[in-house]
Amino acid sequence: MPEERSPEQADSHRPPPPLLEGGLWCGATRLPGRVGASVGRAGCLGLGWGAASCVSDELRACSCPADTACKMVRWLSAKLGPTVASRHVARNLLRLLTSCYVGPTRQQFTASNGESPPLSAGNIYQKRPVLGDIVSGPVLSCLLHVAHLYGEPVLTYQYLPYISYLVAPGSTSGPSRLNSRKEAGLLAAVTLTQRIIVYLSDTTLMDILPRISHEVLLPVLSFLTSLVTGFPSGAQARTVLCVKTISLIALIYLRIGQEMVQQHLSEPVATFFQVFSRLHDLQHQDWKLESMGRSEGQLPEVAFSDGQLRLVDPTVLDELQKVFTLEMAYTIYVPFSCLLGDIIRKIIPNHELVGQLAGLYLESISPSSRSPASLEPTAPSTSPEWDPQGGSCPQDDGHSGTFGSVLVGNRIQIPGDSQPESPGPLGPISGVGGGGVGSLSEDNALKRELPRSAHGLSGNWLAYWQYEIGVSQQDAHFRFHQIRLQSFPGHSGAIKCVVPLSSEDFFLSGSKDRTVRLWPLYNSGDGTRETAPRLVYTQHRKSVFFVGQLEAPQCVVSCDGAVHIWDPFTGKTLRTVEPSDSRVPLTAVAVMPAPYTSITMASSDSTLRFVDCRKPGLQHEFRLSGGLNPGLVRSLAVSPSGRSVVAGFSSGFMVLLDTRTGLVLRGWPAHEGDILQIKAVEGSLLVSSSSDHSLTVWKELEPKPTHHYKSASDPIHTFDLYGSEVVTGTVANKIGVCSLLEPPSQATTKLSSENFRGTLTSLALLPTKRHLLLGSDNGVIRLLA
Hints:
Elements: H1 7-13, E1 23-26, E2 29-32, H2 63-99, H3 131-135, H4 137-150, H5 153-167, H6 180-199, H7 202-224, H8 235-256, H9 258-264, H10 266-283, H11 289-296, E3 301-303, E4 309-311, H12 314-323, H13 326-340, H14 344-347, H15 351-365, E5 385-387, E6 391-393, E7 406-408, E8 411-413, H16 459-468, E9 484-488, E10 495-500, E11 506-511, E12 516-520, E13 535-537, E14 546-550, E15 555-559, E16 563-566, E17 573-577, E18 586-591, E19 598-603, E20 607-612, E21 620-623, E22 633-638, E23 644-649, E24 653-658, E25 664-669, E26 675-681, E27 685-690, E28 694-699, E29 707-710, E30 716-722, E31 725-730, E32 734-739, E33 746-750, E34 760-766, E35 771-776, E36 781-784
Antiparallel strand pairs: 1-2, 3-4, 5-6, 7-8, 9-36, 10-11, 11-12, 12-13, 14-15, 15-16, 16-17, 18-19, 19-20, 20-21, 22-23, 23-24, 24-25, 26-27, 27-28, 28-29, 30-31, 31-32, 32-33, 34-35, 35-36
């Protein structure tokens, strides 16, 4: 991964980055630059990034906000995990990359002092930035950081398909004009492809080379050389795309060598050079294309030297003639003749014509220079020969398919880092002569190793990630594929409760072994890896049946009959709340949502008590039974607003209490058996499960349930919520998904013994990452997707 520099060092090494709009919120502190709008329970992350429209000294003052925003995006990418980072961070960065090249201003070449013009002849693989490249710098940096974190699959399975989407032809057939977004997408696609190829391993590059040729290069060339498709920014955008495409093809050549180029890139290279023949044919045909097109209202059809009839748009023809000039012919021909050597005759049928055009340009700038015929590639010899035009022409058989190695007799020789420097009239060819590959700057490196990360995707993690990045962001349904991602052994007793922290990068578990453990949720391994806990809380004396997090003060609440409030960072006990009478133990506990700091506790005498973790003593105390004998309180749930609490009793009775007044709003017989679990949902909805095999959805103040589900064989003893869906679990190790809104229906999956062993005792859902934590009676917790 590239070394991070301080803002002061960065200013001296690169052009100023773009301005960022808005601000970045982190906790209670607002940092410059807005990166994320929200990471809600549905897992949505919005990215916003504005870009500067010009390069000036004033923008240097903005390097600090830009660096801060980049660091925040990198931090989020690691924190959110591979699926969420790819779906919501990388996907939005890819869309943002296109915006960096929209408009003629972003397509202007930039040159520093002493730098040759963009079309300096022979310099085929060098950095020729346009303003859009400077604006897109932070975006590309963040995209590559995601690839550094999660490995090469990010490049090949997410970035490359998106590039193919950007360059794909439109659905309409016939003459058309690109819109500014499509034009910018072509430039962004070629730029990103260059960055991807540098980080691909040799094996991967060869595997996907046919895809790059057919899904990237050929579609780009079809737009670039089209006689009927115009660019909104005219010749300038087409020139930039031409220069970037030349550089991309040269980069691939320098990575794979002549033999592989002849095998895999013959068609793109020939297509690229063919445009000169078409323009040459049109120039020698004395046809008034413009008048023909206007008189009939249709584009004229012209016969070319290859026998094909093609439509020609006079406006586009004028645009092409401004781009593919004699200078462009010389700029392309000299380096490619040196790169390809004698095989240029096999790959490029019209190489003689392009050579003649290059010679004409050379004569126009230097009448005493060589004739056009002298621009033909030299014959191979026993040693590399320096071309007078500024390039070292490789031997015909000098490059094998061994990525830059040279065959000498029966051995493979690695070329030296430097070659004799003999600059021609317009300078050496970077990457081909004039110092060779070893003289390339860091930005123009041909290959870099992608650092191995502990979070690199492999095995089950890779399979699940590949599925998730193909799912639409509008898909609001929970999909359970039964893919094992991680295991968390450590408890010696049955798991009684599992709860993720609000950030979803850690979770808590309580067990019969009288401990509470804090576990990390960062991905690692291939799905078979076992993860150790970060912290073990051992102050309980009995089996722990409740664990929760008070979000406002950031502390953990756990209960074994007595409530313990402790710090999850240090494991230090902050407070212990014992029942007032040892004969009346606590039977259920719930925590209030932020910004409240209270805990609600139910005891066996049907009394509900509130305790503020910041203050000693009781806050409130309310009786729930009202003269009835509904049994023990089995479960408590607090509404998302904190305005009401619902209690479920062992008799199946439920009571709704207003926390502001202490009044019982409603009490009703909800089930025929014990209440096993209750959840409160936005919109005044309550979800309850019972030992009578039913799962029921209620409106708080309505007498009849809105939905009623019945399990055929086993009671639903644990469940969790995902948006408008309920994910259920039974002791028969069955996972079900049912809707809160649609008519009663439930999809059920039986857990396989390979992925889950023992009996399911607890379940928790990670709504942002869409994973399930499943606790078992053998003390092991599994993370499944």
